[in-house]
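Objective 1.3, modelling of assemblies. Example input:
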Amino acid sequence: PVPFDWKDPLGANNLFSEEELAIAETAESYCQERMLPRILEAYRNEDYDRKLLEEMGELGLLGSTIQGYGCAGVSSVASGLITRAVERVDSGYRSGYSVQSSLVMGGIEEFGTSEIKDKYLPRMAKGKLLGCFGLTEPNHGSDPGSMETIAKPHPSKKGYYSLSGSKTWITNSPISDLLLVWAKLESTGKIRGFVIERDQCPPGTLETPPIKHKNGLRASITGMIHLDGCPVPEANMFPDVEGLRGPFSCLNSARYGIAWGTMGALEDCISRAREYALQRKQFKGNPIAKYQLVQKKLADAATDAAYGILAATQVGRLKDEGKAAPEMISMIKRQNCDRALVNARALQEVFGGNAVSDEYGIGRHVANLFVTQTYEGQSDIHSLILGRAITGLQAFC
Ligand code: TGC
Ligand code: FAD
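Predicted structure (tokens):
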């Protein structure tokens, strides 16, 4: 019989091409050798090193599905394998990576003019220019359609819009050079996308204060965006997309990535819990891995991780064939985030009191996975998106 591989229980590696496996290998080596040694101090100190994105840029990992502009142009499955490698280390590192690659570079690639793409994408691909994505507002999270940020013709600068409003919980906003901000055009009431260059904003028109003292995702920097009559060139508005289709199209790619990433985090929890359980002895010198209740936790988690990888692979293949409905992405985003969180919490119990020490890594994953279940559409919101698609009836309000 074929031997069972607990690290790849359903043989998902058989579904990946040689090229995809090589990309995964590059990403895993970088993440384990260069990212992992930094994470404990970064998490303790709420520190995000922007050099990480430069290093990923050097390896060709940023905006990896984009063709041209110095990007690798790989398959969606390959990009998922990169995301899984990054989140195996930490969801916060994956967050910084997703915002740069999927939300901002992806948005610019899909909706930007050729001038915008030429101007920003090559430097973003190298990690020299950092982006953030401003959709959520203090009063409008799950319901971004009600946003209050407004764009209107600038009163004194011809050829410019003036943007005013506040965004909150924005990954990378304090350190970003480029801000993709979604605002309503005052004249039409329709949502439009604006690319703001921090360097070009006069003093007092753009502030991006950090949000400190987070109890999850501490190795990712999060902040607000305050706009007060901020002048933005008309040429920096996405010309052909209006309404929520703009931001949600970017979110499709990022949500897809999270479905992969959370499986990486869960796989790391499994690996850490297995190792701990084999070494820790209780009752007559037995390793706790010998006890059925511990084994069930490992079996549950390994099963959910294996199913999650297969589902993400299937949606990735369909995405590249243009056959992935957004609801499929809601399904894998919700399922993989939820199962990663539930299983990580169960595996945390295997560590007993040591789970409380940050040296064991498990508590960090649990705290992070709560965030992944919350951002890019909280799981219950994805339930309602699926419920609407199943029944034809919408239950949001
Ligand atoms: P609804 O009527 O559903 O749709 C309005 C318009 O948008 C279009 N649309 C989509 N287009 C492309 N892809 C999708 N997935 C789409 N979903 C909807 C839709 O076709 C329609 O187009 P049109 O042309 O007819 O106007 O809008 P609604 O207001 O009823 O939406 C409700 C709901 C709950 C589905 C939606 O608002 C939602 O998904 N809420 C969750 C909010 C969210 O995900 N926020 C994410 C913020 S960004 C973030 O969290 C980044 S974290 C990054 C990190 O650190 O990793
Ligand atoms: P709310 O919308 O207030 O929801 C609170 C609770 O109510 C949730 O459980 C929700 O499911 C539930 N709820 C709401 N409406 C309904 C309903 N109709 N039916 C049933 N239940 C409902 N946003 C960005 O734009 N860019 C970013 O880069 C970004 N990064 C983030 C980083 C971090 C660390 C965090 C924590 C958040 C980030 N977000 C970002 C914001 C994130 O997308 C929002 O937090 C998320 O969409 C939920 O919005 P909210 O926090 O306002 O919660």
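Strands lie at 67-68, 71-72, 131-134, 150-153, 160-171, 178-185, 191-197, 206-207, 222-233.
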